[in-house]
């Protein structure tokens, strides 16, 4: 397990110009993470793990050994719905990625996007005070990006956002000159 941070020693960056200035109002992972997190154990049969993931409607799970995070696993690691031979007589511990990169909930969204892209990973378990509190996946990051793009399109077309409160109309409106 690797704890990634947004500090200057977290990841080498290709160019300084790629760095974004921090904003006080920036979105953190706490705002976009998924909770609760599906957790599996290393000894769990791979077929059971895939069934749990499908039932929960998730594509990534965090693997625990006791209370410690020891890895992550995706539906693709388990062979998907047609990968019975991949799972045959195998456990989650045999198929998981043991080099899980975990992050803190106060990490900025931009730093998380950079981390996912640079490390080519699909999910980031979110840990606060040595406790698993959430998970952020590529899909979560794309959902936030999509929502931001949609709001930008609305503003460009001068359309009201869904998040605005309704306009109040006075019952005495007809009485005004």
TrEMBL record:
Residues 33-88, 96-153 form the CBS domain. Residues 10-23 have a biased composition (Basic residues). SUPFAM superfamilies: CBS-domain pair. Residues 153-165 have a biased composition (Basic and acidic residues). Residues 1-28, 153-177 are annotated as: Disordered. The keyword Mitochondrion does not apply. Keywords: CBS domain. InterPro entries: CBS_dom (IPR000644), CBS_dom_sf (IPR046342), Diverse_CBS-Domain (IPR051257). It comes from the Bacteria. The keyword Cytoplasm does not apply. Pfam families: CBS (PF00571). This is CBS domain protein AcuB.
